[in-house]
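This is your field. Please look over both lines of this record.
***
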Amino acid sequence: MNAEGAPHPTSTINDVVHQKARLGILAVLAEADRADFTYLKSLLQLTDGNLGRHLEVLAGQGLVQVEKGYSGRRPRTRVTITRTGRQALEEEMRAIRELLRRFDEGSG
């Protein structure tokens, strides 16, 4: 806690959201609302298994919704950020911005 009694910004970092791949997934989805599995895999340079596991974690926390279907005969997986996911990402960004602010003030 600082002099005012407020906790340090790192105390509000969400370990589920903060992981690099999951933060990337949420950031992409916040920009696009919905993306397909292949696009996320390519953009974030993840393997099928790695992306699938991260999506399971995010979906298990209610941060994304995963929809499986078909486009013609080809299977297609689409991912959408939920309202909870958007809020979690916003809270994460707030904590990171505060950390950056403190860093910039302290390194001047």
